[in-house]
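Hi R.,

As promised on Friday, here is the backbone we talked about, encoded as structure tokens. Could you run it through your design pipeline when you get a chance and send me back a sequence?
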């Protein structure tokens, strides 16, 4: 299947000089998956809720300040390659071209709808993110915004004092709340309004009850549930409990479409535009070298995610790097920070190798224990 089967020519378009206030109201009113930004009628970039959430800019700021370049897709591109481009670009929408002419757009939802029947072979346990960032129900909206920005995520499970799941707060919840509250209050002390909104407890704006999934469910089942409930992710919980075991999102499912079962490892990098000072080839080679040290642990897929903080050292940004491997023995990951992508990557890679050794050590101990028990049984 190629993109010509699913790309659409109808989309929301704004000019680079449009005010952020107008863009935020479009998200509230039309709830688009993304907006195409144009300059003099030509494609310039896209903007999504993540860009709006990460921006501290005032309403009069032009949308060009927060728009993000998205990889262009040929109208006849393969769906699998398009999925990889969207994930690596960390976007939910991409422009589709026919030659040099902008034909339309393709979104994450369109791809998932097109391939949904093939998702029965993938389970939630294979693709969910296990390292979950949460927030307490009494913590402030301001704290939630900071946590979303700092970790580059779009949703936070909300926990009560006992650690049980009571809700979820997303970028969409916060955008809707801010826009709705500002429209209700009208003009006034803008700084005071913002301070008041940031101090409100998460409990007041979170979504509850939470739509959840279990690890043994198929990707198809959870995607259908996401569509039915108009959400982009589900909290993964052990059966019949209120504990949090992970998060599964549409992006996780999209990423799974790029997995290969071939002998060569599939490596995917999110936010490749941050690779200044290093290269995709270097990262792939380094991960392959690390994986080769553990021959009995076959790596099927590797995902490297880069996120830039505002802090800089002599002009070099502080980068957070997360590496996650999907192997024949389950998932293993490592994360780290450093100034520049190469430094951050190698800190994360070192942590990953230590985690792999820990897993292999536990497995070796279990194997030795089993051998010892068998020998004792023969005495």
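Update: got your reply. Pasting your designed sequence below so it's all in one thread:
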């Amino acid at each position: 299947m190629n993109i010509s089967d699913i790309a659409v020519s109808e989309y929301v378009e704004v000019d680079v000089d449009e005010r952020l206030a107008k863009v935020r109201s479009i998200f509230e009113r039309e709830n688009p998956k993304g907006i195409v930004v144009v300059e003099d009628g030509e494609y310039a970039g896209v903007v999504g809720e993540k860009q709006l959430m990460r921006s501290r800019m005032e309403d009069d700021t032009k949308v060009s300040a927060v728009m993000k370049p998205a990889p262009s897709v040929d109208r006849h591109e393969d769906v699998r390659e398009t999925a990889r481009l969207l994930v690596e670009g960390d976007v939910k929408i991409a422009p589709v071209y026919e030659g040099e002419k902008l034909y339309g757009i393709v979104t994450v939802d369109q791809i998932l709808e097109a391939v949904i029947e093939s998702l029965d072979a993938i389970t939630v346990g294979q693709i969910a993110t296990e390292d979950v960032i949460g927030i307490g129900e009494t913590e402030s909206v301001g704290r939630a915004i900071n946590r979303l920005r700092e970790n580059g995520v779009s949703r936070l499970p909300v926990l009560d004092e006992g650690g049980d799941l009571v809700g979820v707060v997303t970028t969409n919840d916060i955008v809707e709340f801010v826009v709705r509250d500002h429209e209700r209050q009208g003009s006034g002390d803008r700084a005071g309004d913002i301070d008041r909104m940031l101090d409100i407890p998460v409990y007041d704006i979170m979504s509850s009850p939470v739509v959840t999934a279990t690890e043994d469910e198929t990707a198809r089942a959870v995607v259908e549930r996401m569509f039915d409930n108009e959400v982009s992710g589900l909290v993964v919980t052990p059966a019949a409990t209120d504990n949090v075991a992970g998060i599964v999102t549409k992006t996780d499912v999209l990423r799974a479409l790029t997995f290969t079962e071939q002998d060569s490892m599939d490596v995917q990098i999110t936010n490749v535009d941050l690779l200044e000072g290093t290269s995709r080839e270097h990262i792939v080679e380094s991960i392959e070298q690390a994986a080769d040290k553990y021959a009995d642990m076959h790596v099927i897929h590797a995902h490297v995610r880069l996120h830039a903080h505002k802090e800089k050292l002599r002009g070099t940004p502080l980068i957070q790097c997360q590496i996650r491997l999907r192997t024949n023995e389950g998932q293993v990951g490592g994360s780290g920070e450093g100034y520049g992508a190469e430094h951050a990557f190698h800190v994360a890679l070192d942590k990953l190798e230590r985690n792999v050794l820990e897993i292999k050590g536990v497995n070796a101990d279990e194997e030795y224990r089993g051998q010892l028990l068998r020998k004792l049984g023969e005495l």
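One thing I noticed while checking it: The CA atoms of residues 140 and 201 lie 4 Å apart.

Thanks again,
M.
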